[in-house]
Design goal:
single chain; mainly alpha; Growth Hormone, Chain: A; disordered C terminus
Length: 407
């Protein structure tokens, strides 16, 4: 069967609730990326934030989300319910969106970003565990690829909308930020109405529910193979700091503030285009090959961005960055789902995201510090070094942890 035909078969065989999860993510990302594509510029030019402060805000916000993912994932395992926590997280993020245009200080932006990431921390692990439960095991890669693809469509539609609205409102960033509220509410509505948990009816408790009390012993039940995937995800994240620095790099080489969201558009067009085919391929071909190729693309992206002298070159680096994300993010989710026990899927995704979030905090602070001390080239060259180390680590241990094998 050709790769194109196999992808079509995988696409058709996915449950309706997986599609609903994807479209909920799409509208949420339109909202989030519309705001976040302008937020670094808003903080630096309107509120006087330093590059280091941008890195700290981004890193702390994402790390906070990661810590909460562990608790929400474990709680969804204990309750035997995932949709309630997932919708709560999306709703919390939606209600924080008005705080961004209302902000008159970096402190309020930090508060809004923190609360927004609280919502993400609550929703992500239950959502990813729900995808694993909804999709047949042999199509998990395709399911995660589809969700990532739709998520990424929203991620480039948001910045496109931001550019259009910046032109419409003659560069009034605050007015444009208000537009992010509506799609967030639509995303919540889709999830409430169309997502159904498997094997449940209203008021019915899923089999395997063990009550709401959390226990550290659950983490001890996760197998060694799972912890190898956690370590791998942490190294990947250390090599890939916040995309806020892509936006700032574009502004640094002379792209006008009203056009910098196009950088995230370039990244997410490639991400959306490649995510589903890459996810479907992860169900059939060598995982090690996909991971290594993804890291090679990240190294190339970092080098291009380090030496970029024009906006066009930054767009090229952002496109390489997005392709790297498509090849690796859905695959890492599939690896977590394949190695964590079914009754601990939420816990597994939560712990995985805690480690990744801690690495993102470290990576973003390092990136901001390097930018302030030595300039943007040093920031991206350091990212290339971390990515190269990650690739070397995968190459060394692949025979022991089985990443070179198929599903």
């Amino acid at each position: 069967m050709s790769g194109q035909k196999a992808a079509r078969v995988a696409w058709r065989g996915l449950p309706a609730s997986v599609w609903a999860l994807g479209f909920g993510s799409l509208f949420t990302d339109i909202s989030s990326e519309l705001i976040h594509s302008l937020l670094p510029v808003f903080m630096v030019t309107c509120l006087g934030a330093s590059m280091l402060m941008v890195g700290v805000i981004e890193g702390v916000a994402e790390a906070t989300a990661a810590v909460l993912k562990a608790f929400s994932g474990a709680l969804s395992d204990r309750l035997g319910r995932r949709k309630l926590l997932m919708v709560l997280g999306y709703a919390l993020s939606a209600t924080t969106k008005p705080l961004f245009p209302l902000a008159s200080s970096v402190g309020l932006v930090f508060t809004a970003r923190f609360a927004d990431r609280l919502g993400k921390g609550i929703r992500v692990a239950p959502r990813d565990a729900l995808v694993a439960e909804l999709a047949p095991p042999e199509r998990r890669g395709a399911a995660y690829g589809l969700r990532q693809a739709l998520d990424s469509v929203g991620a480039f539609a948001g910045p496109l909308l931001a550019v259009a609205l910046m032109a419409c409102f003659t560069g009034d960033i605050r007015t444009v930020l208000w537009a992010g509220v509506v799609p967030a509410l639509i995303g919540v509505l889709i999830l409430v109405v169309y997502v159904r948990e498997p094997g449940t009816a209203p008021g019915e408790q899923k089999d395997g529910s063990r009550g709401a009390r959390l226990s550290l012993s659950d983490i001890g039940q996760l197998p060694l193979r799972y912890w190898g995937v956690v370590a791998l995800g942490g190294v990947f994240t250390l090599a890939r700091f916040s995309e806020a620095f892509l936006v700032l790099r574009a502004q640094d080489v002379g792209l006008p503030a009203g056009q910098v969201p196009f950088v995230l558009v370039a990244m997410n067009v490639l991400y959306a285009t490649a995510a589903f085919p890459a996810g479907a391929a992860a169900d059939r071909v060598s995982r090690r090959t996909l991971l290594l190729f993804g890291l090679v693309l990240l190294i190339a992206a970092d080098i291009v961005l380090a030496y970029a002298g024009s906006p066009l070159v930054v767009f090229g680096g952002a496109a390489l960055w997005g392709t790297h994300m498509a090849l690796t993010q859905g695959l890492l989710s599939k690896l977590v789902a394949d190695t964590a026990p079914r009754h601990l899927l939420g816990t597994g995704f939560g712990v995985f995201n805690v480690v990744s979030g801690a690495m993102l905090l470290l990576a973003s602070v390092i990136a901001g510090s390097l930018w302030s001390a030595a300039g943007p080239s040093a920031t991206f060259l350091a990212g290339a070094v971390f990515a190269a180390l990650a690739a070397a680590g995968i190459w060394i241990v692949e025979k022991r942890d089985g990443l070179s094998t198929g599903p």
